[in-house]
Each structure stands twice: as structure tokens, then as C-alpha cells.
Amino acid sequence: MKKILTMLAVIIPFLLSFMPVQAGQTELLGAGATFPYPLYSKMFDVYNKEFGVKVNYQSIGSGGGQLQLISKTVDFGGTDAFMTNEQLKEAPGQILHIPICLGAVVITYNLRGNPELKLTPDVLADIFLGRITKWNDARISQINPGVTLPNSAIIVVHRSDGSGTTNIFTDYLAKVSTTWADNVGIGKSVNWPVGLGGKGNEGVADFIKQTPGSIGYVELIYAEENKMSYATLKNKSGKFIKPSRESTAAAANVALPEDTRVSITNTASPDGYSLAGFTWIMVYREQNYNKRGSEQGKAVAKLLWWMTHEGQRYTTPLKYAPLPQEAIKKSEALLKSITYGSKNIL
Questions:
Q1: Per-residue pLDDT of the chain (346 residues; tens, 9 = 90+)
Q2: What separation in angstroms does the CA of 175 have from each of 123, 194, 195, 251, 261?
Q3: What is the DSSP code (8-state) at residue 72?
Q4: Rounded distance, CA 213 to CA 196, Å?
Q5: I need a labelling partner for 277 at 20 to 30 A (CA). Which of 213, 222, 233, 256 fits?
Q6: CB 60 within 8 A of CB 32
Q7: Predicted structure pTM score
Q8: How far apart, in whole angstroms, are the C-alpha atoms of residue 318 and residue 315?
Q9: Any idea where the domains of the chain sit in the sequence?
Q10: What is the distance of C-alpha 195 from the center of its chain?
């Protein structure tokens, strides 16, 4: 028995030395948007099981993702708010935006009986401006005939952190309300006229669930997972559209620029949902920085290629819309431009 154990002690390490360990040891770090977090969690789990690459993604909000990438403390950043030309110029390297999927921001609320509400752009803007303060306000009642609304205060809930979801929401409000555009504006963080803050999509969803009379905005999957009611929103064409994978995909029926940075809120598509947007992963085009090895850069590029191709099959089950073919084509060109030491990786 002792002889056998001795032999095993020699043979096993010898056999293990022929096993590919590099993939199992590869770990990528990412941080950013909470908007796509349920999808990323699924994708990264599957990718780890299939390829042995561990992806550690911190759901800290789009603002945090951009800051982490600029400081070069992560391999990639997640954002629902594309970086501006000014921000890109100030970055320590050329940053690419790779679209991963499309998602819907929904207006969710906590009312007894879970009524299905309809909202128009002007009413929604005035609720968040603090101009409409009661649930049974005549303007809300007028577009919801037959729905009994309480004579109680509307409690507005918004994000407290720098958020791409907020950017999508405020971008929409600025398009439909000149008052909002002039006095509040667009951004990952804004000076809210009214309301209470929650951190992340998770925080806002929890806040609304626990607060009768509240209203706020979260990504569709968070409302679905928490069994929360959400509104049907009147779009630019005058149709009341329910947020769904199909109506989100319809909103993206627009021409995309080569760098894929585009807003699709308040879409002109007749069947499109107004509060929809792309979510991106941001990476440096040149992956040779901070003494990174070439394998780290290759791992990033290969992961993103998989996410924009094979990984798209996980979008629909989680209520996200997959990338349209034009977006995939644009992302391929961007991914093929990624280099390590000025040599293309893919």
C-alpha cells in the first residue's frame, strides 16, 4: 500500500502538469451598470463553466464602471450611458463601446390592488418634477378610466448613485419635457426636484416594494423578478406600449453610428417602447497597459466576442432584447480593432 501511495504521489503531479491550467487561472475584473447585471451574471457563469475563465463583475452603477475603467483598476467597465466626446478625450487611452444587449426601463409603482396604469410623457415628467403630487390627480385619472386611484401622496423614488438607468430615464424626460430639459437635464446623476434615493436597480426596487404610494424606475427584469406592477407608456407615435422584449427591440430600429454610441429613447418606431436603451461594455482598444500580459488582453477580446454572439441566447429568457444584426456587425468591427502591442488580437 505504501508503494502504491508513493507511486501515486509521483504520477498524479506528473499527469497534472500536462493539463491546461492557464484558462482555469484566468480571471477578469469588471464593474459598472446594474441594468444588465442579471444577464451578465448568467453569461459569466456559463462562460466560466465552458472556458474556465472567471469573470468577477461588481454591480456598482454605470458611473462607477466608467471611473474604474479610467483608473485602469478593472479589465472592463459596464455602462448604460455612453461616454461623451469630452470624457473620451480625457481618458488615458482610446475606449471602445461594445453593445451587449438592449433593455427596457419601466415605471413601477406600489398601489393597492396592483392596477395596470397608463402614463403619458407629460404626466410622467410632471410627477418627477413634483408638479403632480396625488395619485388621484385629474390628469392621471383621465388616462386611466375605470381605475380607482387613492387620494394619497405620490412618493417619488430615484437612484442615489451614478446610474446609466438614470441616464436613460432623464434622457427621455428631457426629450418630452422642455421644463425638465431646462431645469434638471440629462445625466447619470442629477439634482432631483423631488423624491428619495435608492442605490442600484435593486435598491430602488426594494424601496418601492416596501413603500405604499411610491413610484420609480427600474430595469424590466428587476420588476419582473420582484413581481412589481409597471406602467404602459404612450410613445411618440401616440400608442400606449407595454415594455417587453419585442417593443424594446422595435425601439432599436434605427441607424447606428460606427462607434455604436446612440440614444434610442422616445423612439419614432410605431411599435417601439420609449424607455429603452443599449447597454455597453467599455474596454481600451490597446490592451497593453499596467503591465498586463497578452493573455489578459486576449481573454477580454474573446469574452466580448462570445457575449455578442453565442451569449446572445441568454438575453430573451431574462427579458432583455438581443442585439440587432447591425449592432452585431458594428461590434465585430470594434472587437477586431482591439490590439496588444499594436497587434490585432482577433
A1: 434 433 333 333 333 333 343 434 689 999 999 989 999 999 999 999 999 999 999 999 899 999 999 999 999 999 999 999 999 999 999 999 999 999 999 999 999 999 999 999 999 999 999 999 999 999 999 999 999 999 999 999 999 988 889 999 999 999 999 999 999 999 999 999 999 999 989 999 999 999 999 999 999 989 998 999 999 999 999 999 999 999 999 998 888 999 999 999 999 899 999 999 999 999 999 999 998 899 999 999 999 999 999 999 999 999 899 999 999 999 999 999 999 999 999 9
A2: 14, 19, 21, 15, 17
A3: T
A4: 13
A5: 213
A6: yes
A7: 0.83
A8: 6
A9: 25-103+277-344, 104-274
A10: 23
Please give the grid coordinates belonging to residue 216: 420609480
Same fold, 25-103+277-344 and 104-274: yes
- The architecture of the domain spanning 25-103+277-344 is 3-Layer(aba) Sandwich (3.40)
- Separation of CA 79 from chain center: 6
Place of cell 392621471: 140
Buried b (16+ CB within 10 A) or exposed e, 144-168: beebeeeeeebbbbbbbbbbbbbbb
The β-bridge relationship of strands 276-284 and 95-109 is antiparallel
Q: The domain at 104-274 falls in which architecture? A: 3-Layer(aba) Sandwich (3.40)
Residue type, 149: L
Amino acid symbol at 318: L
Per DSSP, the residues of 248-272 read: HHHHT-S---TT-----TT---TT-
Query: 143-146: long-range contacts at Cβ-Cβ below 8 A with a sequence spacing of 24 or more?
Result: 143/118, 143/119, 143/234, 144/115, 144/117, 144/118
Q: From 47, 52, 83, 110, select the one nearest 308 (Cα to Cα).
A: 47
Strand order in the sheet with 232-234: 118-119, 232-234, 240-241
139 three-state secondary structure: helix
